[in-house]
Amino acid sequence: MASNTEQLLSDNEIKKRTIISFLFFSFFIIACFAFWIWVRNQPKDNGTPLPLRTVLNSNEVVFSTLFANNHLAKTYPASAASPRVRVNGDAGMDDFDTAHWKLQLVRNAGDTLYITLDDIKSLPKTEVVFDFKCIEGWSQVTHWGGVKFSDFAKKYKLEWQSFLGYTGLSTPDNKYYVGIDSKSMLHPQTILCYEMNGKPLPMNQGYPLRLIIPVKYGVKHLKRIGTIFFSKQRPPDYWFERGYDYYAGL
Fold this sequence. Notes:
Blueprint: H1 2-40, E1 44-45, E2 48-49, H2 50-66, E3 103-108, E4 111-115, H3 117-121, E5 126-133, E6 139-148, H4 149-155, H5 159-162, E7 166-170, E8 177-181, H6 182-185, E9 191-196, E10 199-200, E11 210-212, E12 227-231
Parallel strand pairs: 3-12
Antiparallel strand pairs: 1-2, 3-4, 5-6, 6-9, 7-8, 7-12, 9-10, 9-11
């Protein structure tokens, strides 16, 4: 008799716990759905609900505080690089006259330098082979060559401008543009790139000059640089305006 009673109590306990678990799970799903609706109905900041944008901005503060020049992206031998490099987007890649391209370097209002590709190639060359990461979820080991932005900054006396806080870059047609924190721009692996796999950049990879910045996701690696300028505030950023993270750090 005792054994039957214990079995009966055990079965009742299982049913009770099952009902409690089901109710708890149902409440959790309803609460999550209600929270999602609440977030969607909040005011938006550049396409992102304000609570989510606040979290993204907080993440930027944390990661930028921890950022250091000696924290390098993992590198690989050139033999590990893919011979067929994926293209991460084509915004700003409209046809343009390559023969008349010059980089517009805006040091201050009314102080713009026009720099040729040969001017840039006259600086010490740096190569970097790293795992290029795209926000679409893919990555690929790629091989790039160019000039360290920190060397470029020294050549054109940009020490003061570089420490304003932000650097802005845009394509010649201004259809794609990014803003990047100056610490990341001055990182030793950040280059103004004119080669891919030891050859001139293909047109769809940003010929004649693009940014390679291994400490950032691919959205910040602007192809076909037309203009570089500096700012105390965040410059406009193409994907930030469409709801993505501004910092985009790795």
